[in-house]
Amino acid sequence: MLMKRSLFIAAISTLAAGSALAQSSVTVYGRLNETVERQKDGSTSSTQVVNNASRIGFKGTEDLGGGLKAFFLIEHGFNADTGTTSGAFWGRESNVGLSHASLGTLRLGNMGPTAAYFATADYISFHNHDTGTSSDAFYLYPGDARNTIAYKTPTFAGLDAEFQLGLRETAAENTQTLAVNYVGGPLHLGAAYVNGPVTIDGVTYNDAQEIGLRAMVELGAFTVGSYWARNDGKIAGSDVERDTFRVSGMFTTGALELHANVGLASKIKVNGSSADGTDAKQFTLGANYNLSKRTKVYGFYTKVDNKANIAYYSSADGNDFQSFAVGIRHNF
User: Fold this and answer.
1) Averaged confidence pLDDT in the chain
2) Residue range of the domain that includes 303
């Protein structure tokens, strides 16, 4: 009798465990993305194997009933060219939250970049998804998305908004972010505001803001997008300001994508006066060939043209940076 009771309890436990597992799911995902590049920094040339933001992540959801879901996401960045860790182990993203179709989404934790980045610069990064040496050289990633409380509204008529509050624990100041996105057929619009620390030309400004606007339109085989952002920082009686602008285009035919983008960083203004030699421009030409939905081979040429007193992507003020690259990206 005791054996039958034990077998019955074991069977019920197994069924209960199966039921619990049926209500939740965990997905392992990731990306390995590497290029072989011939780079030139000023007068110095080198050949390198370059990691392009490779990562592995785990995400899961649980249906709590009544339209409410719990979820989590943890993502680790690593250097696929060397096998070493890239930054904090779960530094790319680590958060937990609740979502409801009618009430919106609440997240707690590390968001990676702020919602402002995804509403502006990242949104138009058609080529190589803003990674590696062909990524946007001029976006400044203001604020701190760690220790963050984030709320995203439901989507109403194509419009949604996200507010993030990054608490001042390991950062110099709290970070407040507001991002608004709109999708209406082929038209995509975005606007963003960040109040949080930013680093401009090697100097960190704790009293700083960013405002940004973005537009993208899909025209059959062509996709065109652009964004503009202004960063403003104050320190020791100085008011420092800088603008960046980028336009990107993509043409798709079958498995082939052709890409071009141009970015401009304005001169840095100090108390309203422009500092000579602090502007720069970047242009990139690229081609992707999608072997499948998960795997592509690609190549690009990118160049950052720095003026005499600025060093975006280069080792010294005035150095230009350029790279010819071929690569492979595989998502899983």
Assistant:
1) 93
2) 28-331
